[in-house]
Amino acid sequence: MASIEVKVPDIGDFDAVEIIEVLVAEGDRVETEASLITLESDKATMDVPAPEAGVVKSLRVKAGDKVSEGDLILELELEAADAGAPADEQAEPEASPETTTPEEAPAAPPAPAAASSSEIEVDVPDIGDFESVEIIEVLVAEGDMVDAEASLITLESDKATMDVPAPVAGKVKSLKVKGLPPMQPQERNNLLESVSQRSHVPTGGSSTYREAHEPWRQPIERPSSN
């Protein structure tokens, strides 16, 4: 049977580290990664594991010994089962061609098609301490194609306006919000005219506006002395 030497592995900058416990004896059967000895430095303790499964053929250390990297701990005799393992592994490839056929490999590509039809919901992002912020403009319509980061709607608070961007590129399937109705040209002219009239009243204004909106300024008719 084959045997291997198990030595102290890399333990960093430590040298002459004490063995505080030997966890196996000669003749013991150990599994891979089973602890063999415990080392203790002035900062920590660590176990040295078995690199392979086998039977402890001879121990070269005892509790209280001080060891460094590369020192021999024990000889491990590998089990016969391990030697027979390669024969089993050689038998497995013979069966694999029967279960793996060339036709099975091309079956994977259709997966990307599902990703192209996925849908996401776009929610209002974090807008700080504001609540019930008004949508003053909707910048897209159902069926529009949008790029990532393209503006979708415009919000307005009492302090600022902000656009909500698209998180990814795609097509607008449905709109769940609406903005203010667009202002017609005549409505815009009326609004500007009204603002213009109001802005000129404090500096004089027209008599027509004063008569309509400030009746207390109209002249009072006095009765004739006749």
Could you walk me through the main structural features you see in this protein, from its secondary elements to its overall organization?
It is a single chain. The relative contact order is 0.09. The strands form four sheets. The chain has a four-stranded antiparallel β-sheet with strand order 1-8-6-3. It has helices at 80-99, 111-116, 185-200, 207-213, and strands at 3-7, 17-22, 29-30, 35-40, 45-49, 54-59, 66-67, 72-78, 134-138, 145-146, 151-156, 161-165, 170-171. The chain is of the alpha+beta class and 226 residues long.
Number of strands: 13
Query: How would you characterize the largest beta sheet?
Result: 4 strands, antiparallel
Under the CATH scheme, which class of the domain at 3-82?
A: Mainly Beta
Order of helices and strands: EEEEEEEEHHEEEEEHH
Structural class: alpha+beta
Summarize the SSE layout with pairings.
Elements: E1 3-7, E2 17-22, E3 29-30, E4 35-40, E5 45-49, E6 54-59, E7 66-67, E8 72-78, H1 80-99, H2 111-116, E9 134-138, E10 145-146, E11 151-156, E12 161-165, E13 170-171, H3 185-200, H4 207-213
Antiparallel strand pairs: 1-8, 2-4, 2-7, 3-6, 4-5, 6-8, 9-11, 10-13, 11-12
